[in-house]
Design brief:
This protein is an alpha/beta fold. It has a single domain (2-34, 117-309), classed as Rossmann fold. The protein is 40% helix and 18% strand. The chain has helices at residues 9-21, 46-56, 73-80, 91-103, 109-119, 147-153, 175-182, 196-204, 209-216, 236-242, 249-256, 290-310; strands at 2-6, 27-31, 37-39, 42-44, 126-128, 135-140, 143-146, 160-166, 188-191, 220-223, 226-227, 230-231, 262-265, 279-282. Strand 3 (37-39) and strand 4 form a beta hairpin. Helix 1 (9-21) packs parallel to helix 2 and helix 1 (9-21) packs across helix 12. The longest helix is centred in the last third of the chain and has 21 residues, at 290-310. The site of calcium ion has 6 residues, from helix 2.
């Protein structure tokens, strides 16, 4: 069994490849909830929804987030009434957040997520990283901002000075994540090409998480979200520069440090392979289509298996 750590759009691409490559029982996907927030009285879990919609085959192929064939009547009516419209919630997407919010009054986020996945026909378990609230707070040149204020409302424009994960100390890994980390058949942990600072860091901030990963004693393989010094999408490169990290796949590997057994970098970064402590796999890692996702997923699984045999 392979445990995957994923954020949203970048995470969903590799997670969907792994879901296609592996049989039920061979994959558990743990998802960042540091981006979750309360908005219009709703509990919104952007990364869980992105992973869920992608694996269900109903994600919007153009944006990577939200649902395909979306309509926007709710947003239009909301605006007419003077409601806040900076966070886009399509009509289909809205149903997820409304029902989740309703069910959360008596069920955990893990339970609600499992039920949604069952209804959507997803065969691989998707688990939130935690059932307790963890909220990413961005310290910027405009002061402290809630994550969605920074990411969506201010479109990542503020210069970032630091990040903290409010609630992390009091949270714990969800039952599904905890069980996967301790599972006797756990063979590898794969860190998706998600934003390390915004999507993976909240998971690593959970108490006991790093220790549990170490105790699992399996290869930990990450795929770089940075290709040729640039993020494929989003603020990863801008953020790394603002936090004075080398803006390259080397900076990502250094940030993960000795957590990593293996690191997967793009063919265009082949010259940097020698600069990393982890074992490196060099291969095309830009996923433009389902075939790219499946091919990379299979290569990552084989690489992890090889590291497991040699370790
Ligand atoms: P978010 O939560 O929606 O922001 O998504 P993630 O944190 O999961 O992923 C964002 C990261 O995915 C960005 O840093 C991108 O550079 C990276 N990314 C997106 N598409 C690809 C891809 O096709 N290949 C690789 N290697 N990285 C990607
Ligand atoms: Ca996210």
């Amino acid at each position: 069994m392979i445990l995957v750590l994923a954020g949203g759009v970048g995470g969903a691409k590799l997670a969907s490849g792994l879901a296609a490559a592996l049989a039920p029982g061979e994959l558990v996907i743990a998802v960042n909830t540091g981006d979750d927030f309360e908005h219009l009285g709703l509990h919104i879990s952007p990364d869980l929804d992105t992973i869920m919609y992608t694996l269900a085959g109903i994600a919007n192929p153009d944006t990577g987030w939200g649902q395909a064939d979306e309509t926007w009547n709710f947003m239009a009516s909301l605006g007419k009434l003077g409601g806040e419209t900076w966070f886009n919630l399509g009509d289909r997407d809205l149903a997820t957040s409304v029902l989740r919010s309703h069910l959360l009054s008596r069920q955990s986020l893990s339970t609600v997520t499992a039920e949604f996945c069952r209804r959507l026909g997803i065969v691989h378990p998707i688990v939130p990283m935690s059932d307790q609230p963890v909220r990413t707070i961005v310290d910027s040149d405009e002061g402290e901002l809630n994550f969605q204020d920074y990411f969506v409302r201010r479109r990542c424009r503020p210069k970032v000075r630091g990040l903290r994960f409010e609630g992390a100390e009091a949270a714990r890994p969800s039952p599904g994540l905890e069980a996967a980390l301790a599972a006797p058949d756990l063979a590898a942990i794969v860190i998706c090409p998600s934003n390390p600072l915004l999507s993976v860091a909240p998971m690593l901030a959970l108490p006991g998480m790093r220790e549990a990963i170490g105790a699992a004693d399996v290869p930990v393989v990450a795929v770089s979200p940075i290709i040729a010094g640039q993020a494929v999408k989003g603020p990863a490169a801008k953020l790394m520069g603002e936090l004075r990290m080398p803006v390259s796949c080397v900076g990502v590997a250094e940030w993960y440090g000795d957590l990593l057994t293996g690191f997967v970098i793009d063919a265009s970064d082949a010259a940097l392979a020698g600069e990393m402590d982890a074992k490196v796999l060099v291969t095309p890692i830009l996923m433009r289509c389902d075939a790219d996702r499946l091919r990379l997923a299979c290569e990552v699984v084989d690489f992890a298996a090889l590291l497991g045999r040699n370790g």
